[in-house]
C-alpha cells in the first residue's frame, strides 16, 4: 500500500515540522531570557528543569494525551533555551552577535541537508545509531575528564569536531526514523521532534565552542 505509507509519512513530517518550529520559537524565547541570567541558583534551577522536563516529555510521548505531550515539549524547549542562555551570552560577548547568528543559520543548514539526505538517499542510517552511542559515551567521558584536567587547544579542537560529527550523525538517524516510521501519532511526532531539537542544540553548541577556540587563539 505505497500511497497509504506515503500519506502516513507526509502526515508525520507535517506534525514534526510544526512541532519543531514551535520548539525553536520557545527555545529562542527561553534563550533570550536566560542570556540575562547568571549565578549558581539559576544554573541549578535551569539544569533541574531541563533534565526533569526531558524525562517528562519522553514518558508523555508514549503514555499521555497529545495535548499534554505537546505542552510538555513546549515547556522543555523553553527550559532548554533558559539552560543554554548564559552560554549563548558568553559566545555573543566573545564572538559577536553576527557570528552567533551565522552559527544558528549554519546549524539549520546542516539539519536541512541531513534531512534531505536521510529522506531521499534510501540509505539505512538507523544502523549508525549503535556506533554513535559509543561515540557519545566517549564524548561524555572525555568531557568529564577535561573538567578536572583541562584540555589543550588541539584536544579541544578535536573534541569540538567530534561533537559536531556525532550529532550530525544523529540528525541522519533521526530524520531516517522520521522518513520510515509507520506511526503518525502525535506521540511519535513529539518523540522525533525532541530528538531532532536536541541534535540541533548540540551541533550548535559544539560549533560555537569550535569558533570560540580560534577566536581566543587569534586574541593571544
Model description:
With 220 residues, the chain is mainly α. It has one domain (2-219). 88% of the residues lie in helices and 0% in strands. The protein contains seven helices and no strands. The longest helix has 34 residues, at 186-219. It is globular, with a radius of gyration of 18 Å. The N and C termini lie far apart (63 Å). The mean pLDDT is 92.
Task: Give a nutshell description of this structure.
This protein is mostly helical. It is built from seven helices and no strands. The protein has one domain.
What's the arrangement of secondary structure elements?
Blueprint lengths: L1 H33 L5 H24 L2 H30 L1 H24 L8 H21 L3 H28 L5 H34 L1
Helix pairs in contact: 1-3, 1-7, 2-3, 2-7, 3-4, 3-7, 4-6, 4-7, 5-6, 6-7
User: What's the N-to-C terminus distance?
Assistant: 63 Å
Q: How does the overall form come out from the CA principal axes?
A: globular
Rg (C-alpha, Å): 18 Å
Number of domains: 1
> Which series of helices and strands comes N to C?
HHHHHHH
Estimated share of beta-strand residues: under 5%
The proportion of residues forming helix, as a percent range, comes to over 70%
Decide which structural class fits the backbone: mainly alpha
* Unreliable residue runs: none
Q: What is the arithmetic mean of pLDDT?
A: 92
Give me the count of strands: 0
Work out the oligomeric state of the chains in this entry. Answer: single chain
Contiguous helical run count = 7
Q: Describe the biggest sheet?
A: none
